[in-house]
Automatic annotation (TrEMBL):
PANTHER family according to UniProt: KETIMINE REDUCTASE MU-CRYSTALLIN (PTHR13812)
Entries under SUPFAM superfamilies matching the protein: NAD(P)-binding Rossmann-fold domains
Pfam families from the UniProt entry: OCD_Mu_crystall
Domain of life: Bacteria
Species of provenance: Ferrovibrio xuzhouensis
Protein's name in the database: Ornithine cyclodeaminase family protein
InterPro entries the UniProt entry points to: NAD(P)-bd_dom_sf, ODC_Mu_crystall, ODC_N
Signal sequence segment: none
Amino acid sequence: MQHPSIYLTYLNRLDVEELALTDDEILAAIKTSLASQGRGEAVIEPRMHLEPGVANGHFNVLRGALREPVDSAGVKVVGDFVDNYKHNLPSELAILLLFDPRTGVPKAILDASRITDMRTGAVTAIGAKYLARKNSKILGHVGARGTAYWNVRLMDRIFDFDEIRVHSRRVESREAFAEKLRQDLGKPVIVTEDWQSCVEGADIVVEASRLNEPTPMLKTAWIKPGALVMPYGTMSAVELSLTDIMSKLVVDDWGQCKGGKFGSLRAHVEAGKLSEQTLHAEMGQIVAGLKPGRERDDETILFWHRGLSLSDIALGHAMLEKAERLNIGHRLRYA
């Protein structure tokens, strides 16, 4: 029996850059995937970790599938290696594989390092859209890794902040981060010397730090009543008391948040402070209109997102569609 020839699309880093997805294209793809998840039109499995044991880092393996209009199953493997800056490499490098969910035929291989950054920023921004006060004007952002840029850029697209404060552990990284934001957003960005001056009194607080071990750097007392706090570091940087001041606790996927050894609220899950009983909603349920987001200005809300394979798959699909329209990418023969 003669099998048909199979070809797949390969988009490398240069191709992804050439696609130049707009802020609105990124946000639309991620909003669609969150709503699909909220309506139960997706399959998502908790991420797995592979620790090679030869460096300060690990691999995350994310798996999922989305129905129409994306109609793809996908697997992303992303390395998270804290010391890569010493080798002049990004801390996170990733590959996304997309498959036909009906036959298992591979459809595409994409450099997913930029996808990881974009989709994380988009989930942060959409979370803020539904959970932050509409008149939020001060952003405090800790962390300067790749996802940080898209966090700030896409949130500023929605809120047009009056004040953006940034901080990270290394002086050179936070200065470079701020300068890129100044150039791309066309507005001032304040670099702070410490965590407190970055987040205290901010309307929206994002904690995207890179710690080697859990350390309570972000103090609960600094959080302004009515603020939105979004911590998502691999190693926790928050105090156990953080959930005590929250009106609502929201996650991206409870299945991923309730297990595993990593994550900013791992200790809160183990202590029972974040549980199925205390959880308000998954973000997808809010985007789909099944549960309310922010209902009052005086609500202090926490949103913990661990990163979803569904977001990677949706953004990868959007890139494939645009690449086909613009004739960007490479056609590889599989069989």
